[in-house]
Amino acid sequence: MGACLSRCNVRSPEEVPGLSNSAGYTIQENAIENQSRLMQIEERHTSGAYRKRPLVIVRGLGVKVIDTEGREYLDMTSGQGVALLGHSHPAVIQAINKQASRLVTCPQIFFNDQRAALYEELVTHLPKGFDRFILCNSGAEAVEGAIKLARLVTGRPGIIAMKHGFHGRTLGALSATWEPRYRRPFEPLLPGFQHIPFNDTGAAEEMIDDQTAAVLLEVVQGESGVHLAEGSYLRKLRELCHARGALLIFDEIQTGLGRTGSWFAFQHEGVIPDVMCLGKGIAGGLPMGVVAWRGELGILQPGSHGTTLGGNPLACATARATLQVLKEERLPERAKQVGEKFLDRLRRRSHPMVRED
Ligand SMILES: Cc1ncc(COP(=O)(O)O)c(C=O)c1O
Fold it and tell me: How far is the centre of ligand 1, averaged over its atoms, from the C-alpha of 29 (Å)?
């Protein structure tokens, strides 16, 4: 993240509205002391799984994040793909406040107004027929759900994923993730997973068979550079899955909700999957993952899947607010315009760190 946070003009803490109040302590008096104390505490207790950057972020405002000393940075990570609306968007704040004072938790064995409204909203953004959902708490959990769904629907074990693909780090999702560095320490992973070269129609033709429950891929791979699936490849996968009885699952956790200039990345090529995984910023930064699928595939049996916190009213209300803003402010279109501008500039100015293969 360090490489992706770019330092803005430095303002003194008192110039940053509300910083000392919201952070809960007075920045001017003990900012540096606080910063190193907080870092030490985290270092003492962290799992060790994260390579930490020496920055204590205590606030976010739009495209900026602010550290304990009131220094502002442009958040070029957008919270690792989560801050779809920027930080502290008023609609997100309002939705959280309002729902927090009404009802935070409500297990899915009961019905809930916010969850029902979110389902209805989601249906309006998805391709026709996508009207069944698993609501969970993260991207990896959505991938787990999609894998289970595919095995249940098809009665087959096989999952074909892509070389260089990334789908998360829980054991099922990790089995679909390609990077050997992430996988090896935890092997043996789940049986039935194979990885084929991305954009290679011949390999897909060879590997998808009557034991394949699903082909799982990102439409834009983001782990090892930025690799776009070719339209002809997606069309071939669609055709093969259809012909051989396997499901086509698109992991749109990173690419969904406007980030590629359309609501979903698959819309650029018009190839519709059977199942889709969403996550990251869908609930304005509160934890949420979603599996969406074409209802005609069927539904899960009671008890076959579940999660205590998934689909809680607080996350659902915040997701509704997030989707509303994306729609009302036409942010997918804006992403397209801004993206084109950036791409044009990147192409015109050569830089050793930027390369197009
Ligand atoms: C494409 C893709 N799938 C799955 C995941 C896992 O999501 P999470 O970190 O919420 O578990 C990520 C996370 O970066 C991702 O980029």
Answer: 39
Q: What is the pLDDT of residue 253?
A: 98
Beta-sheet pairing, 158-162 with 193-196: parallel
pLDDT for 16: 45
Domain residue limits, the chain? 5-76, 94-313+321-333
Q: Which residue owns the Cα nearest ligand 1 atom 2?
A: 167
- Catalytic residue positions, numbered: 166, 251, 280
Q: How far apart are CA 68 and CA 29, in angstroms?
A: 11
**303-357 per-position pLDDT tens digit:** 999 999 999 999 999 999 999 999 999 999 999 999 999 889 888 887 787 777 6
CB 171 within 8 A of CB 141: no
What is the model's pLDDT at position 28? 52
Best residue among 50, 147, 182, 254 to mutate for probing ligand 1, ranked by most atoms within 8 Å of CB: 254
| Cα-trace Rg, the chain | 21
Q: How many Å apart are CA 159 and CA 147, to the nearest integer?
A: 8
Which amino acid, 262?
S
94-313+321-333 — its CATH code? 3.40.640.10
Residues in the chain predicted with pLDDT less than 70, given as ranges, are: 1-30, 357
CA-170 nearest atom, ligand 1: 11
109-133: buried (b, 16+ CB within 10 Å) or exposed (e) per residue? eeebebbeebbebbbebbbeebebb
Q: What is the pLDDT of residue 309?
A: 98
Is 213 in contact with 223 (CB distance < 8 Å)? Answer: no
Task: Give the model's pLDDT for residue 29.
Answer: 57
